[in-house]
């Protein structure tokens, strides 16, 4: 099979063999392969699939392949070098969980933040009883769901908050292109955008990733992330989404605390999963059933 050249943006690409089909995102920036969709036909399909992944990673010097797999496929692929790092409960909308699996190359499996991740989770556990749930929007702040006209301001917010990010959120045109499946929650102070987050929806499976949280330094400490998260959750409940999850920076005490206080369950850590805030970082997986919002 001829291997394609990889673009920096990580455009999805479909590969087909005699016994497999797979849709992959190849990212030079994150130095990884993401499994977006796949179909394997028995052991022959697995062998073809693994051969493709090995070739792509060796050619491009990628350190990681990861994806969300059904349990039976995760178990099957463990014999081919995949490890199970986390789970997303009810991801498939039929009470079936997704297993987040990875295969590592070179030295990508060596975490540089394992100690910090453990400390953050311990600290989150100690702080959980201090308060629960979102508070009230502070005076002078206004929430809204994003419209196309808000994309330049949103791109500028992300550019100010993050040194780097796994996806091109600094590009207003990229953000606008996602509005068919992403809901952005925004908070303004005196017409200035100071905080945002998003819900990326998979309509076919009825789940949503809660992501892209950013707050300007001048507006931190006011609980805006929790407030935006609650607004997004209520909107998703109205839409019939059944599963919510997030992949949070393991070193961010604030964001991990936001999700624990909001009723999310920690299910595992993804080692060196993406390039964010200037380097590769481990990411914690948290998930929640939409029924928890309705109760």
Concise overview:
The chain is α+β, with helices and mostly antiparallel strands. The protein has helices at 42-60, 71-77, 114-127, 151-161, 172-177, 224-239, 253-261, 291-294; strands at 12-16, 20-27, 32-40, 64-70, 83-88, 98-104, 141-145, 182-189, 192-202, 207-215, 243-249, 265-276, 279-289. The N and C termini lie far apart (52 Å).
Largest sheet: 7 strands, mixed
Taking strands numbered 1, 2, ... along the chain, how are they ordered across the largest sheet? 7-8-9-10-11-13-12
Number of spatially distinct domains: 2
Q: In the CATH hierarchy, what is the class of the largest domain? A: Alpha Beta
Indicate the overall shape.
Answer: globular
The ordered string of helix (H) and strand (E) elements is EEEHEHEEHEHHEEEHEHEEH
Give Rg in angstroms: 19 Å
- Strand residue percentage: 35-45%
Mean pLDDT figure: 91
């Amino acid at each position: 099979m001829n291997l394609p050249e990889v673009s920096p943006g990580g455009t999805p690409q479909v590969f087909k063999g005699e016994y497999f089909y797979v849709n992959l995102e190849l990212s030079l920036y994150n130095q990884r392969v993401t499994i977006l969709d796949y179909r394997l036909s028995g052991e022959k399909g697995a062998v073809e699939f693994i051969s493709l992944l090995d070739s792509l990673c060796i050619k491009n010097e990628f350190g990681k392949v990861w994806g969300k797999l059904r349990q039976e496929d995760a178990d099957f692929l463990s014999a081919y070098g995949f490890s199970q790092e986390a789970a997303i409960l009810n991801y498939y909308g039929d009470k079936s969980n997704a297993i987040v699996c990875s295969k590592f190359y070179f030295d990508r499996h060596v975490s540089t933040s394992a100690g910090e991740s453990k400390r953050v989770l311990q600290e989150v556990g100690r702080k959980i009883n201090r308060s629960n749930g979102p508070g009230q929007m502070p005076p002078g702040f206004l929430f809204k769901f994003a419209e196309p006209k808000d994309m330049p301001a949103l791109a500028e917010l992300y550019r100010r908050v993050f040194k780097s990010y796994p996806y091109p959120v600094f590009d207003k045109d990229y953000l606008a292109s996602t509005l068919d499946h992403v809901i952005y929650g925004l908070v303004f102070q005196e017409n200035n955008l100071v905080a945002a987050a998003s819900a990326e929806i998979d309509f076919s499976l009825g789940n949503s990733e809660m992501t892209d949280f950013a707050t300007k330094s001048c507006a931190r400490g006011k609980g805006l992330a929790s407030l935006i998260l609650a607004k997004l959750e209520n909107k998703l409940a109205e839409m019939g989404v059944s599963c919510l999850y997030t992949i949070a920076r393991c070193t961010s005490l604030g964001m991990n605390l936001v999700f624990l206080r909001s009723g999310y369950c920690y299910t595992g850590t993804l080692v060196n999963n993406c390039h964010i805030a200037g380097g590769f970082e481990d990411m914690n997986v948290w998930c929640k059933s939409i029924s928890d919002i309705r109760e």
